[in-house]
Structures are given as structure tokens and as C-alpha cells.
Amino acid sequence: MAAPRRPGDRPARPPAGTTWALPVLTVPARQQLVRVSQHRFPDPAFFGRQVLHRFDAPDASYGVCYLATSLDGCLLEVFELARDAATGRATLSVAELRVRYAALATVARPLRLAELADDGLARLGLDQRVTGGDDYDLAGAWSAAIHGHAAGVDGLFYPSRHHNGRYNVALFERARAAVTWAIWGGLGEPDPADLWVETNRALDRHAIDLIDPAGP
Description:
Shape: globular
Strand order of the largest sheet: 1-6-7-8-3
């Protein structure tokens, strides 16, 4: 029986030391990033140390806050959706949507982020097993190595695992003051109107049907 085909190389591990070549992307001041959180966590500026998520510090020595460059990028990351094989569509209940809210993080000064996407991914010798695979120990090792790098970057810029045209940001706790926060509004609610329109646009774009079992 032939061995299954797979990449011949192992996923890259971080180089030793703190002065290796690190591609850096700059997010300009006044740019807005988006975070979706649950209403039971009213402060969107949450820098977790639970060692649960992809780029969390392996030793919990620093916090990480996860954002996206767009609302639909957040929605794709937050909701685990099963799709109908025949139609390619997924469903999301209004109740699931309404337990969450969207917040906007405005960049107060230019953010310098390690570029783990596009050209930066290739320059680091990485592939998307690090940014989108299930080996969180490996991803955490890269987070720790980049956090300790001499460049002193504010976090990581990487592609969504569900959409290679959407991007996420893992912001290190040391950059907490680099963004200011504002609550955009509750998801699944018609007010504010711009959030309602953007939510429905994102759901439609990604073939997600919003259902309300309690409705008429």
C-alpha cells in the first residue's frame, strides 16, 4: 500500500536567537480592526492568557487579543458552521448571533506586526500548517519566538483559516495602548443600522442563512 502523499518537509519551527529576518507589516494609525465577543465579556480589550488559542503564549507570560480586519473575518472565525453538501449553504440562528457584539479597535499609532501571510509567509519559510493547522503547540512556539524577537513587534498578522482573502491580528498585550476601543453594537439587532447591514452582507457573501426558530 502506497504511503499517503503529504508535504515532504515538516512544518517550519522558529529560528534560534532574536535577530533573524522577520518580515514586518505596518498598520497605519486610524485604521480600524474588528473584534466579536460575547455580551458576558463586556470589555472587548481582552488579552487572554489561557493557552487555549492559536497564538497564545505557551507559558502564559503575555496576553493576546484576537481581532480581524473585517467583520466577516470575525464571523468566519467565531462561528463553527456545518454546511449542506448539496447546496453549500450553512445556517446560523439569530439566538447564536445575539449573544455576541462587535467592537471596533482604532489604531492609535502605527502597529508593527509580524507578517505571517502572503509574501511574509514565504519569506519565513512557513506554510499554512502554522497559521491554519491544528498544531497549536507549534503556533504558540512561533508566537513566543516573535514576541521575544529584537524587532519588538506589536503582534502577528495572519490569514483566516476559513478564507485566504481575510486576515486576522493577534495583538500582544504590550501593545494594549496602541488601540482605542468602541462598542459597535449587538449582533443580530437592527440598530445600529450599519452593523445590521454589514452583518447581513457578510452572511449573504458566505452563503450563511440566518434562521429564527422562535419567529413566526
